[in-house]
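F.,

This is the one I mentioned.
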């Protein structure tokens, strides 16, 4: 087990958002976190990476407690975060955006060449400024930049948000290639088709708690859960 989240309670000010949430991910697995907008998916990722610190509970990454550590201490442990708002540097070129996150470690599999191989469009655009990119290109850049940290666990918050169907299909293929390289991923996504195409297991959230967990095949067969929590 690479990640174990146990009974976390997370707040924004006085607003209680996560209520005793627990989940786990095994090394090499791709797990999706599904649910309607406002279910608490983003807050779960923010709790793991240290942007919104839980008031109680435990988050263990490779057996080490993360709660209490700031994000700049958590990321070097091997966790990469792709936020839903992308946060690229608009005044840097594509190449500069990618290289700024470079982390050279023993056994690293991600470098500029491999990133360009995965996202050839970024190679073509490497001299363009970040603010000249389309939404889909910015999403590719955000993932590419995060991969340059050579994460053992990749957290993705709504990677398909606001993208056209053809771009989403390309994103699915690219994330599938990342999966084949053995990268563990936790994907928060309201696009059920994209998430389940990539994942081995699913957690379904509602109102800050886990309402269902199971394999993707089990979820596909569970009409009650899909209708009640996913509206499909």
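My design for it:
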């Amino acid at each position: 087990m690479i990640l174990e989240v146990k009974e976390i309670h997370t707040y924004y000010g006085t607003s209680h958002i996560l209520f005793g949430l627990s989940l786990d991910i095994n090394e090499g697995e791709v797990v999706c976190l599904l649910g309607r907008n406002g279910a608490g998916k983003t807050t779960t990722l923010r709790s793991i990476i240290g942007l919104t610190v839980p008031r109680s509970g435990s988050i263990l990454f490779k057996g080490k407690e993360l709660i209490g550590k700031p994000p700049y201490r958590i990321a070097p442990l091997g966790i990469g975060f792709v936020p839903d708002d992308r946060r690229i540097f608009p005044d840097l070129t594509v190449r500069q955006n990618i290289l700024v996150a470079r982390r050279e470690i023993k056994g690293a599999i991600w470098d500029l060449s491999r990133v360009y191989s995965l996202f050839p469009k970024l190679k073509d655009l490497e001299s363009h400024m970040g603010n000249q990119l389309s939404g889909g290109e910015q999403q590719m850049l955000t993932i590419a930049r995060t991969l340059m940290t050579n994460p053992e666990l990749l957290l993705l918050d709504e990677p398909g948000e606001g993208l056209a169907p053809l771009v989403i299909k390309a994103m699915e293929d690219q994330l599938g290639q990342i999966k084949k390289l053995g990268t563990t991923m936790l994907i928060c996504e309201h696009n059920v088709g994209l998430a389940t195409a990539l994942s081995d297991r699913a957690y379904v959230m509602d109102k800050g708690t886990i309402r269902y967990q199971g394999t993707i095949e089990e979820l596909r067969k569970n009409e009650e859960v899909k209708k009640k929590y996913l509206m499909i």
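The longest strand covers residues 15-25.

Talk soon.
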